[in-house]
Amino acid sequence: MFVVERLQQQDPSVAKEIHAVQMAAYAQEAELIGAKDFPPLNTTLDDILQSDEHFFGITDEGALLAVISLCEMNICSLVVLPSHQRKGLASCLLRFAIEQGAELTVMTAVKNTPALALYALFGFADYQRCFKGQEALELVFLRRELA
Q1: How far apart are CA 140 and CA 127, in angstroms?
Q2: How far apart are CA 102 and CA 123, in angstroms?
Q3: Tens digits of per-residue pLDDT, 93-134?
């Protein structure tokens, strides 16, 4: 069983770990959706250090494997190291977020079918779509309402 812990992203060593997981996961996502200019890959260490998001993660033997960040019950980021995907880490983090007892929203690329399938399993439904960026990346906004 995985344990979700609050991460103190103001600590530079923790922020560096968060950044490493994000960059690995976002590089994989950019390749999956065919995006050459993928804005999440522009996230800097300073962005994390100065963020007002709440970061939570799952570690194993001191190594950070997966991270979710929440801001006013919006899922700003949900990332898992590519080498640890398909092990239930993202599901564990989503369950944790849902247990906080608020309506949740999240945004992802329409072409990110693994993420869309995961969110659907947890009751998220499409409520808006738009195109963003130079590549006109199609995004979908999902919402999970309180039961």
Answers
A1: 8
A2: 13
A3: 999 999 987 899 999 999 999 999 999 999 999 999 989 877
Q: Domain ranges for the chain, please list them.
A: 5-144
pLDDT digits (tens, 9 = 90+) for 74-85: 999 999 999 999
Under 8 Å between Cβ of 8 and 48? no
Tell me the C-alpha distance between 98 and 91, whole Å.
10
* Per CATH, domain 5-144 is 3.40.630.30: yes
- Distance CA(126)–CA(46), nearest Å, equals 32
- Convert 116-147 to b/e letters by CB count within 10 Å (16 or more is b): bebbeebebeeeeeeeeeeeebebbebbbeee
